[in-house]
Amino acid sequence: MRCTKGWGSIKQGWGMTEVTTGAIHVPGGVEDKTGSAGVLDQNCECKLLDDDGNEVPEGEPGEMYIRSPNVSMKYWKNEEATRETMLSDGWLRTGDIAVCRGDWFWIVDRKKELIKVNALQVAPAELEAALLENDDIADAAVVGMKMNDEEFPRAYVVLKDAVKQRPNPLTGEQIQEWIKPRVAKHKWLTGGVELIDEVPKLPSGKIMRKVMREWANSFRDEISGVTESKTVKKSLTYESYKYLESYNLVR
């Protein structure tokens, strides 16, 4: 997006209150159409770590840690949050999942929103981006459906109006099959696909994942221990149902 009077341009960046607004920006005079947050500002350090505290290889997602003179010292009257987020050696744990290629960073998700499938991490944003590559899909959101300490990706999909008018519109089962060759097996939408009218979002455009997790939990409660659930038949393929059944999650 450019300023209409030609006085300048609006650039992408990354920041948070704890880093005094910003630490990563797309440099002035550089055009970027990849969605990158940019490169590190001067006097800033960044590392991306896995769950074991090891730095991830280039191109792999990891939780972003920032260290710089502009990082806040502590939270006001909140020692617990300070201990969890602001480490003694000056590193700030941001909670954002990022990928680095060369000097450039891409923010791909929030750590608390990651879905764990068989100890492997699945970023909802990655699956949402894959779903939006389907010409019949207008919008999509993915959350984890937890059942007996296991988690399964579940998608909520909005079809384009023209698609809804078809005699045989796209089904949730077809979407599950469509995405399989496009993502790794642990990222398959095993928790099912439900077609909805609108993805709930804040005025800022941010997906209201808490609401959607409540939807997923309600669905889980419906299918848990149910033999002939109409909801199961509507939202899960037979393959997905048998997969959940193998974990003794449905009977």
TrEMBL record:
Coiled coil: none annotated. Pfam families: AMP-binding (PF00501), AMP-binding_C (PF13193). InterPro entries: AMP-bd_C (IPR025110), AMP-bd_C_sf (IPR045851), AMP-dep_synth/lig_dom (IPR000873), ANL_N_sf (IPR042099). Residues 126-206 form the AMP-binding enzyme C-terminal domain. GO terms for molecular function: CoA-ligase activity. Residues 8-76 form the AMP-dependent synthetase/ligase domain. Keywords: Ligase. PANTHER family: AMP-DEPENDENT SYNTHETASE_LIGASE DOMAIN-CONTAINING PROTEIN (PTHR24096:SF194), LONG-CHAIN-FATTY-ACID--COA LIGASE (PTHR24096). This is 4-coumarate-CoA ligase 1. It comes from Coccidioides immitis RMSCC 3703.
